[in-house]
Design brief:
This protein is α+β, with helices and mostly antiparallel strands and about 160 residues long. It has helices at about 10-25, 60-75, 80-95, 105-110, 125-135, 150-160, and strands spanning about 5-10, 30-40, 45-50, 115-125, 140-145. The chain has one domain (about 5-160). The longest helix has 17 residues, at about 80-95.
Length: about 160
């Protein structure tokens, strides 16, 4: 089973840099992802998804699920009627992945205009190789499906207050 990890950053450049680092870690076989997306809340309030090139081989269905989930959070007008038909599937998928119900609310609240988040579904990782590469960029944990102790350790590592998970 994959673990969901969503980390907010103050800007899209930082989020993209973290996504690029994760892409390099994929190539090095230090992490395996089921999917990754960078979610940007632009200064005008619109939301833009940047689907990872590293995980696009997983299929367009993942992008559709991410798009629907983000549409539900931000009520993005470009999704329009598609939200209605896909909402049930997205909610079901969300629960299948172990994502808590408040994830959508927390994501919307954490992403201020100009902010961004990296959201990943991690299949497998080698924390001692991954964490030093991503924690250098800081960030705020929005949501994970990790156990509470692991989530606390991750946030402490991101803020430089503790050892890596």
């Amino acid at each position: 089973m994959s673990n969901l990890v969503a980390i907010a950053y103050p800007d899209v450049d930082t989020a993209r840099t973290v996504a690029d680092e994760l892409g390099e870690l994929i190539k090095e076989k230090s992490i395996e992802l089921d999917d990754m997306v960078v979610i940007e809340r632009q200064p005008d309030g619109k939301v833009k998804l940047h689907q990872s090139q590293s995980t696009t081989g997983r299929g367009a269905a993942g992008g559709a699920v991410w798009g629907t989930m983000i549409g539900l959070v931000f009520f993005a007008p470009f999704l329009g009627a598609a939200i209605g038909g896909a909402a049930g599937a997205a909610v079901g998928k969300r629960k299948d992945k172990g994502v808590e119900d408040d994830f959508m609310d927390r994501l919307g609240a954490e992403l201020s205009q100009g902010g961004a988040a990296v959201v990943v579904l991690v299949r497998r990782s080698t924390p001692e190789k991954v964490l030093p590469r991503i924690t250098q960029y800081g960030g705020t944990v929005i949501q994970t499906s990790l156990d509470p102790d692991q989530e606390s350790e991750l946030q402490a590592a991101l803020t430089g207050r503790g050892a890596a998970v």
